[in-house]
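At this stage, I put together one protein's amino acid sequence and its backbone structure tokens, which the following lines show:
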Amino acid sequence: MCVCVCLVCRDSSNESGQGDSVSLSLSVSELEDTGEGKSKKKRGRPGRPPAASKKARKSPVDKGGRRPNGMAQHNGQGGDPSTLFEVVKLGKSAMQSVVDDWIESYKQDRDMALLDLINFFIQCSGCKGTVRIEMFRNMQNAEIIRKMTEEFDEDSGDYPLTIAGPQWKKFRYNFCEFICVLIRQCQYSIIYDEYMMDTVISLLTGLSDSQVRAFRHTSTLAAMKLMTALVNVALNLSINQDNTQRQYEAERNKVAGKRATDKLELLLEKRKELQENQDEIENMMNSIFKGIFVHRYRDAIAEIRAICIEEIGVWMKLYSDAFLNDSYLKYVGWTLHDRQGEVRLKCLKALQTLYTNRGLFPKLELFTNRFKDRIVSMTLDKEYDVAVEAIRLVTLILHGSEDALSNEDCENVYHLVYSAHRPVAVAAGEFLHRKLFSRHDPQAEEALAKRRGRNSPNGNLIRMLVLFFLESELHEHAAYLVDSLWDSSQELLKDWDCMIELLLEEPVQGEEALGDRHESALIELMVCTIRQAAEAHPPVGRGTGKRVLTAKEKKTQIDDKNKLTEHFIIALPMLLSKYQADAEKVANLLQIPQFFDLEVYSSGRMEKHLDALLKQIRLVVEKHTETEVLEACSKTYSILCSEEYTIMNRVDIARSQLIDELTDRFSHSVEDLLQEGDEADDDDIYSVLSSLKKLTAFHNAHDLTKWDLFKNCYRLLKMGIEQGSMPEQIAVQALQCSHYSILWQLVRITEGSPSKDDLVALRRVVKSFLAVCQQCLSNVNTPVKEQAFMLLCDLLMIFSHQLTTGSREALQPLVFNPDGTLQSELLSFVLDHVFIDQDDENQSMEGDEEDEANKIEALHKRRNLLAAFSKLIIYDIVDMPAAADIFKHYMKYYNDYGDIIKETLSKTRQTDKIQCAKTLILSLQQLFNELVQDQGPNLDRTSSHVSGIKELARRFALTFGLDQIKTREAVATLHKDGIDFAFKFPNPKGAEYPPTNLAFLEVLCEFSSKLLRQDKKTVHSYLEKFMTEYMMERREDVWLPLIAYRNSLLTGGDEDRMSVTTGSTTSRASTVRSKRGRPPLHKKRTDGEESGDGSWVMRNDSLQTPGGLQTPQLTSTVLRENPRQAAEHIPDQDSSEPGSEPDFIHNPQMQMSWLDQQKMEEVNRKDRGGMNYMKARSGGVRQQVRGLMEDDAEPIFEDVMMSSRGQLEDMNEEFEDTMVIDLPPSRNRRERAELRPDFFDSTAIIEDDSGFGMQMF
């Protein structure tokens, strides 16, 4: 029997006035009840400082660097840590030692030790304040927390638990470990003194209810870890109680003579003490659970909710007898519906630890029935991490109880093996493996294990896999299914012996033979397993790319490749022989040789198997005309002809013999077809088409230049153009084969040293072929036109000016630039075949059984056509103004081509910002002209058509981004072109009527926000050149576009703003604020801006304003004017409109931009105004003086560029060439935050329940 007694002496000088006291600490092994071990100690009685001979760590002053008032004293840099927070943060000392030191100090002076602990929690929350000893003694917890809240640094949003970095990650671990070790070391004495735990739990409960997130987060983590430590203590107590009870029962059951009465009494005392301790621990846990967990598991902060759920999972796992019941499980079940993925993830992981233990399933049965549907639905969670863990949990449920999941539940998981997200698919594959491939009769398994091949256990499993693949009806995704099962069912998927036997051998008696669909599915799956083993990485669409294999994975890959090569070198010719009539099966089987280790043919003396393979491939080529099969044969020949292998010569001979035979057959067929002309029968046409398709497929992967296939293909195309009777399939194949021939000739020239004759010959071939393709654009057969268009675009790209880059100037004779006619034809083709109405498409496909599939295929084809033409625009092969006809369809066809048009717009802007801007305004002008043609000059400004043009203009404006400096020239040019267009045609009714295109100014308003303030003045001055005094006085509805546009240019300026609501004019002088009336601060700022602007304007002040030059006329393919306007407009040769072309130079080579010219003219105008001012002053004309002073005034109000909504949409629309915004800091940050909501704060958007969201289009 051992009694541990700790005496703590206090002298009479103690400020509380109490004498010495004795504290008894009982160990668990103690069996005697002293009666004094549970004496209560009153709070607020400070202990006496220890004697000077004590260790420094034990001295309150030295230990914490603490002054007598409890204020922490920090050492300088490089000194020892002076607070408990710093000790734990640094983590240099073992946590056991840190806790032992604190326990020693607690035994000497518990108030000072608890003060250390309280300040530890406060400082771990990031609070700079410190609890003093008098606060601890005289203030309630709520008052202390309120005081600490006032001392919290509001500007800092971070606190130790949220700061990123390895140091703070380690701190979190040390923080949790400290609490666990503290309880573990105090579990035999201190936690039962009814003082330390009461104080700590009370403080943590108060902090967890604080409005300060840092307090709430830190205290909740501390409380949950404290609870976990108490659960361990309770578990130990429960075990000790059971042991004591067994000892007592054993002693009591002894016969009376051998029974030890003293021992029975000691065991009774021990059981009583353990029960009392158990009750106290349960009271503590109840206080934490009801005071903290119940409130914080639904906290507004996801991290806090996650902590609670994570820890309750630990409690249920550690002490399942107490916690694994519905009273606690319900909190986890409810939280499965949490809106944050992080919390849902913690719920699933907590449940996984429970379902892993099959012994706990009876206790989880009710929970499983109640929340099973929710768990299964979470396999489709929008966050992939959550979905993966949900699938794993469902797999554990399946493993523990086969009847827990219904067939519908399982089917919901099955289809996830085809998910594009690999972790989800692999988890679903594990579920599928558990459900279908790993639960069989053990006796039957043992009997089947002795068999091999089709009769082995894997034979039935492979049949089951094929059946699952067919029933899933996703036959194009066999590679995804194999990849999903690869980690869990690799042994089954690599049993190629069994697969080959199932395909080649006849079924035994009583065994059901594989059907045709089953054989096709098995071959497809087998090829996918071969690819997975040989390449050792997921299929395309899964994963971010090929990762570097480990040494073990590399060795496995080599072994698998050798194994599959040995199997299929022998089996493949037999498989091809059996299935050579089936195109689908043959096309799949011919993919296998690309995964061979071809050295085995020579090293293993297996040339006879190579000959057998080449023979079978030749038979396949002769028998099939399907493109997929022929391309597979061509690729196989290409792989076998690799120069690095010794078998190359043998394969090359076989390939040449095959091509010779096909070429001879093709030449004779062409001659027969050309001679018979219109009298050719179906056999002649089939003979030409068959041999041509085979040669085209081989020409794609092999250089067949020496057979000169271009000659006969060109003859066929010319005959088709001249006679117009060529079958479309022959024309398409001839175009494709000619294209391959040209490309192979170019490869030879670029890789060698071509002579001039070679270049001339190739140029002649390319020129003639381009001419043929251009003529084919008018062919009656759509496939021929589409093929010719795609080849034209490809060849124009290949033989463009970029061909000579990279020290290839010698290839300059091969450069072809499309003329205006060809560009117009290409553009017309795009407009006629790409931008078609949906109704037309539906009518063309009416009655088709696979209507949806055909629609998708047709859309894909149209997207390819548009992308091919867009590349010509981007690379400056086709003139940029041609893109206007593309850009104008941006809104109407956004769902189909929006991404292509947007990317084209972005790339063209990078090439030439100004020309791109002119193209954008040109596209709007085209739409406006089309609208005028349909509705007449008097447009309904509220109609959907006008609104559509304005919306398109708004979208175009958003694409300029937020960097106005970078786009100022382009935007100004856009406004100039828009103004010219609006005033281009005067109204034939007279000058008192608005110009015909004046309504276009309303569209132009959408771009005003993209002008800098000083540029708005310049554009406004240019606008005034077109405006007469009569126009400035009009306020009728027909003049509203002019009023709106002018006001958009005057936003933030000091010019006269035309009133829209009143019919009277306002004097320009009465609406301006005099310079004398400005605040000095603003005057200083605007002066600086004017100075900066002036330097920009005058950077070319040595240049003279150029004379009048006419703007070059645009090509006919892009600008379609209203013929009615053109007929009504009679130009006056003697006089020009004010402010028309003479003031603008449309020439990008000029050194002075249009803005510079307008600024120069403004400066000259002001100079002239100054001279007039002197004359007026001498004449006493004061009104003129005032007007001139007001003309020179800077705008007072800054332009509001964009609303908040506009900024958000701009973030969606801006392109890569826009710079990042760096807004200047406000003088009053708090005022700014109150006035302007921060729409860029992701948390604000997430928490907002108003339904605000950005609509893309």
About this structure: The radius of gyration is 43 Å. Residues 317 and 353 are 7 Å apart (CA to CA). The beta strands are 5-8, 21-24. The mean pLDDT is 78.
